[in-house]
Amino acid sequence: MVEKYLTQHGYQAEAESIQRSTLDRVIKAKKRRLALGISKTGNGELHAVNGDEKLVPLLRKLVADMSSGKLSLANTLRAADVDQYLGSLQGMGYVTHQPSKPAKENSAHENTNKSPRNKPTQPLERKTLIPSHINYHFSWIAGQSKIQLVWEELQYSLKLKEHAFSIAIVLRVLLEISAKNYRDKFQLKDLNTLSKNLSQNLDALHESGNINTQQRGDIRRILNDKQSICSIENLQRVVHSSSQVLSNDDLITLWDCIEPLVVNSIRAVQEKKSSLYTV
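Above: the chain's sequence. Below: its structure in token form.
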């Protein structure tokens, strides 16, 4: 159900990266599902108790931690360890409340006076704009070599602590060339500005079912906003202004908002290319 839910919301790569045994240990107990805001409907669909805008980031966080090794089957075998992990998610705002404490599972060598909260799990450090531990399952094709080069620089080479200004410039390039690649493949008009072209692509992806309505609304606000620091307009100012810069947090927030648009634009072109050879 989690895999289907993520796929329906445009995160097929994350759905394919799920480690089922590990995830089962985290969400098998009803009390933990309630803490995470997860329930299921009578027809076997996953239901977001607190809304999709809360559940999608949470599930993506779980997948990211599984991919990085922070959340593994080995460290979910004890109920206390699972609850400690949920406590760390609560501290980062992913979980609204912790489940009720299970019976203590202390071994002879454990200090029974210590609570899991005394040793909170440290969040995974974001070193690059595009998280380096996520496999997006791209199948790069002819005509996307420059997009691949720019993407891999943002995912592996350019570090947030060292190259914040360069990252802003390269991100601007990625948006431009990935938008053009999609526009050319699906024969859309050039509307002369980056925001308008991205909006046009967004509507086309929504119409084809690659972007859901919630995502379209969130991304459209970023594309139309001319005042917020985390906006396409402000990214443009970084390129053309003599003084404008974006902080690492601003860059991360901007990328996390527009990621579904960029990822699905690239995938749509790859899938269309593949379909040309389908017999």
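Residues 2-102+110-118 form one domain.
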